[in-house]
Specification:
By secondary structure, the protein is an alpha+beta fold. The chain contains seven helices and three strands; from the N terminus they run ββαβαααααα.
């Protein structure tokens, strides 16, 4: 994405949106399973704010990587970092209290706290908006 903020989410069995990823300026966002297998996605990607995005399909990516082999390394590193971040998030969700997990997110990603509505941050962290509101009040 060139500029803006996106979210990726699915709708759970209770018909509630569950956010699994955000992306801001210069980040990439994709359902890799769907992209790699060329199948319909289980996720939705939506703008959180006005955004300018670059879209690429598998054929175009393959062609680009053939023409510019150094980009293969670039995309591999992006995927490795994304996978590592997802693993860390899962670990911290189990390891930390909900309050510490929220505080860790806020201190690690202050740009998201500034740009993303509170209810979306709550969804991403697996918390309720009411609980996040309580935590924010405690900090004031």
């Amino acid at each position: 994405m060139e500029k803006g903020c996106l979210r990726m989410y699915f709708i759970n069995d209770k018909a509630v949106e569950q956010i699994v990823q955000f992306a801001i300026d210069g980040w990439w966002i994709s359902d890799l399973k769907s992209f790699n297998n060329n199948t319909p996605s289980d996720y939705y990607i939506q703008t959180v704010e006005n955004s300018r995005v670059t879209l690429i399909n598998t054929d175009n990516l393959d062609q680009l990587l053939n023409e510019l082999p150094k980009l293969e390394r670039y995309f591999r590193i992006i995927m490795q970092k994304g996978f590592a971040a997802a693993q860390l998030k899962a670990k911290l969700m189990y390891e930390m209290s909900k309050e510490n997990f929220y505080n860790h997110f806020c201190s690690s990603f202050p740009e998201f706290v500034q740009r993303v509505p509170q209810y979306m941050i709550a969804s991403y962290l697996g918390l309720t908006p009411e609980y996040v509101s309580e935590l924010r009040k405690k900090k004031l």
